[in-house]
Amino acid sequence: MKKLVYFLTGIRSEYDILAPVIEAVSATPELEAGVIVTGAHLTQIHENSVRQIENDGHRIVARIDSLLASDGLSGRVKGAALQLTGMSDLFARERPNFIVVMGDREESITGALAGVYHHIPVVHIGGGDHADDGNVDNPIRHAVSKIAHLHMATTPLSGQRLRALGEEDWRIHVVGASGLDRLFSTPQLGRNDLEAALGVDWNGAPYVVLLYHPTITDFDDAGVHIASITKVLEETRLHVAIMMPNSDPGNQAIVGELNSFAQRCGRVKLFRFLDRLVFVNMLRHANALVGNSSAGILEAPSLGLPVVNIGLRQRGREHAGNVIFTDYSREEIRNAIVKSVFDQAYREHASAVTNPYGDGTTGRKIAEILANTEVNKKLMHKNFLM
Amino acid sequence: MKKLVYFLTGIRSEYDILAPVIEAVSATPELEAGVIVTGAHLTQIHENSVRQIENDGHRIVARIDSLLASDGLSGRVKGAALQLTGMSDLFARERPNFIVVMGDREESITGALAGVYHHIPVVHIGGGDHADDGNVDNPIRHAVSKIAHLHMATTPLSGQRLRALGEEDWRIHVVGASGLDRLFSTPQLGRNDLEAALGVDWNGAPYVVLLYHPTITDFDDAGVHIASITKVLEETRLHVAIMMPNSDPGNQAIVGELNSFAQRCGRVKLFRFLDRLVFVNMLRHANALVGNSSAGILEAPSLGLPVVNIGLRQRGREHAGNVIFTDYSREEIRNAIVKSVFDQAYREHASAVTNPYGDGTTGRKIAEILANTEVNKKLMHKNFLM
Amino acid sequence: MKKLVYFLTGIRSEYDILAPVIEAVSATPELEAGVIVTGAHLTQIHENSVRQIENDGHRIVARIDSLLASDGLSGRVKGAALQLTGMSDLFARERPNFIVVMGDREESITGALAGVYHHIPVVHIGGGDHADDGNVDNPIRHAVSKIAHLHMATTPLSGQRLRALGEEDWRIHVVGASGLDRLFSTPQLGRNDLEAALGVDWNGAPYVVLLYHPTITDFDDAGVHIASITKVLEETRLHVAIMMPNSDPGNQAIVGELNSFAQRCGRVKLFRFLDRLVFVNMLRHANALVGNSSAGILEAPSLGLPVVNIGLRQRGREHAGNVIFTDYSREEIRNAIVKSVFDQAYREHASAVTNPYGDGTTGRKIAEILANTEVNKKLMHKNFLM
Amino acid sequence: MKKLVYFLTGIRSEYDILAPVIEAVSATPELEAGVIVTGAHLTQIHENSVRQIENDGHRIVARIDSLLASDGLSGRVKGAALQLTGMSDLFARERPNFIVVMGDREESITGALAGVYHHIPVVHIGGGDHADDGNVDNPIRHAVSKIAHLHMATTPLSGQRLRALGEEDWRIHVVGASGLDRLFSTPQLGRNDLEAALGVDWNGAPYVVLLYHPTITDFDDAGVHIASITKVLEETRLHVAIMMPNSDPGNQAIVGELNSFAQRCGRVKLFRFLDRLVFVNMLRHANALVGNSSAGILEAPSLGLPVVNIGLRQRGREHAGNVIFTDYSREEIRNAIVKSVFDQAYREHASAVTNPYGDGTTGRKIAEILANTEVNKKLMHKNFLM
Q1: Is the pLDDT of residue B142 over 90?
Q2: Which uninterrupted H or E stretch holds D323?
């Protein structure tokens, strides 16, 4: 009988990273994949990204509507409660062999809790990562690691951190970042085809990509912060391709300013959603990536793309030499963008870095580990190095 | 303005340990205490122990009905969801300055999550403790520690474990076990008065106390295990005072066997609930404590009481030299009870141990720390030693 | 494609009535049945009656753990919320063609609400019934009727009441009580075989059956009320077969007194659960049925069994001439029992009544109606006679 | 001791109608008002209208975050569950003397259920109203009436309908529509001041007000329907003042088209929110009200304002002679607008109608009834005329 592997996902950015693992699990004869879809996937805010999961052909075993409209702190907790409630009846009925969660979001901890209380082994992707941003996500990630029975660490350093935090060696597998799997397999688009796909007419002129998400620690100032960034970008007179932010608190202020920026500045193009093909090639052709997206840390090094990371998000994460970190000072931001786009020596350096997040075979590695792991007392009985 | 300190409690045994801290917080001019009551407190199974909290004069700020009747794994998860939901609206409205959780139960992790997502500092009592029982409680306790902003460790060893698991030194306070605070302050009852209070007529004959709770890891065998213990106790012909178990899964099998034991054996007396006064003096006069209660680890050493701890619960916890650990073999259990009750050399040794869990001033220490802790960015921004 | 008919059930007594309808639906080629199991079915209190549903071979489409342990008013509301939450995700995913609810319990109104808000036709069994007991169930039943799209009324009088309350004629079907379907199909047991099955040795002596459930309107007095009944039964010196009460508030006081009655009186036998075969034959051979069970109203007339109905439960329901209604006065209860058991003229009269609840073909009738009902705008667009 | 009267509100339009009743209850010495705020009030979509409730000086006894972001059918059911859960703990703790609900929304039925299961009298405002739109709201409203203990009917006809649906005469009070109370008390603004307040420069030219909400029965076509309306309004070349729709499913399509209409047509002004003062005077000076708002039915007759009501919403409600009902045909809509704005004979007729919804003293009447109603068995024990 096949081992049943459940994945839990609440937002497109998370699914994008899980997808290569789900595909690899589905392609493994000993395993069967099921996806629990929750959170932003089920809302129009993100254009019901659940449809992408369906289109990718994955079996959706439950849809747990959980995102509150209130865009505040208590909504996060209540949404987590709805996820727990939904998984409670599901796990009692279905009893998967593994529940896989990723990173540091609400669904990471709710999936881990629902799993461990049902005596189902919890597999955690991204444990041991670290972003020194004072954000709630960081302690949540480590809390999930305490509960998880298997760790799929993205880098050797993350694996060491898991050990330093008391996790047993044999539970830790360094597998790289699965987000890279798709990067390598995404076909190339020429610059002209890309411009057509984006609906822009920039004639090969330099452009930067802006990906800026709200940060929980300073979401009250989200409006001020994004305004500093758009102001600098307006002054640089560069073309700018912008992706809309995720749905964390603070999101609405950012959306408002981005809309206003696009209205007042003709060189700016706003995207709610882009195909993977178009998105990856937009990064490939870009002169720099600006904002605070994890794409700057994880994927940009494999593309040799210079990155300007602004504010606390991603701060302190393991990264290659293609990233300049700034705070919200306009001067700092401006200098970093100018260096990233126009300083040829720096650009050459950035194009030649080695990516600490691996080589694009992460999904396959995880599937093999799950296929070869026996669910027994040893796996379920957690000891800690202390 | 006073700092508002919320406590979360779901079961009598937990409240008994929290109560000295709540009292000390209430007695501190800079602090104000509020109690969130949930779980078993609100059910008749435990005779609505919420009434004891009311009678103790504490301000109850919310009652969150959360215990499912289904006595299974999924009920635990659903109950946790109800706790999160209830705290969500409460914290959004009231914004306490601290939320205090204890130990390793569902309410420990739900209180920690509700707190951290509302940016309210989480105070964890009992972090760094360790019971090597393969139980879900152990990873949950460590997960709560990852989230908590202040650790109130019960022993120096627990403090060291927190550090080994990556917690920063300045967050860790070794304060002892608050459960001892009440032990020292409970008045003495003579043996005759005790027998009257218990409604028994044992004329000063030796007796043991049996406190046996279900263990999550082997709750399917709870009926078999308790039957081994009652069988041995029946053969020893000792008098036995029994407290009913807590409401964890497996509870019903134990209750059934204990009822049967009491019906078939006249030397046995069953108690659903005892006043603190009576309970403590029942331990003071007992010849041994049998079962798997934390009282054997925490409080028995201060009373010089020999303890027979059966099975995985409490296994591996820091303890003094008054405890014999056994598995479920009847012979092991019998030998340990005989030694504890009748071996005078051993009994003298057990009566002279030092209690690693402190000296009964834990509540006061915690209250002082909270009164002197400033809620600021440093407190809220967790770093980890790794 | 088959029409998918979902049934919602929360307690054994309700399932017993639904079961013949589920069977008839399953036996109808155009229909497919699914059962949503919730409430007391999933708890040990009722020995996990979900197993009976499984053993009956029905497809369980969801288990929604919902019964709170708190045995109070707020637990009822919270349990209803868990039912709504569970059905929400289920209906969004599965979209049954009909949702069938019964009577006047929490799951009747939650099923109706989940259905109507998902635009799924709601079929209500037992609308238009009436029990003038001041109980919350009565208004709930009528509220469900306002929402329901099809009414399966048990008697012509109930059908008339639905019309009087504004329901359109064409939505109302008088189909009888499905509880009778199984009564007629249950094989006969001789008196000796019955005694063997019950584990009693009554040698054919007269006995009464006691079925007494808590009533929401006076649940605080449940202990006093049941004590009056057991006192009278103790004095009559009749043999008594007792079924345990359902899990409504007040249940624990009744359970306590029944246990005590059985302990102090050797002629009494207590049952938590009986096979349908044994239960029906226990009624067939009984000299009277005492208490407040709906079996006295619905099934007893078809068996010619005299009934003493005590208190407000069942009061005011349509009934045949085999029922004597009493309040809690011991004298009234005693007189009614004596008349029912020993007054031959009355017993002959009671044995010859006509059952207003039909002839045991209810399940088949309902299945036919559902097979022949088109789900269209007319069905979904409720008008009211007013 | 004052009687505690709780009001439940989930959306601004509902609060606007409840507010005069809350004010009147607060002004009554025997009563004390508390407001439970839930649903859209707590979201930024409606600019956190909870702040208006705070600014009005009412005591908010609970905030129950309940609106899901998913904008679908299952979100409605899940939101209802969150309301029930929140009220469950609240009512167990506080036990108000009355819970007042209004109309036919989710919070109407959840408030009624939470009340009746806690044995708290339910007061229903707007029972017996009728809108023959095939909408789920209609049966919900009647279901709430079945549960409610006191009915505050808006018109004599609504009172008669309640009787026809089986409600007892003495529970029914015809009190008018409280929405009118504020209309009469709102000060007058001159046309110039109004234009200044609206930020428009229309120089006294004729204008219409557009208020169009999604309808549950055809929310899939919401985008097509609103496009027909905007197209006609674009052709008429009238000035148009538009209020944004409520948050029911379909809302996003309407918002999209209205934004587009305002961008392509200079005579159009869009408002997310208007002060009562400005809103009422906007209606007073308008030449017609277009759309499907209840303001056209309830308030417009008291202002002598011609109304064009499009589609099923409000269809079949009791109304005066100032309303023309149309379907979505552009020609019908155009003819009705032209007649309303330009046909002087019709405009004179419309200006002189009598409002069936009363005279603006509804709040005071309800407060008096609650002050004079004893909460006793008679009130709680519902009988039905049938």
Answers
A1: yes
A2: strand D323-326
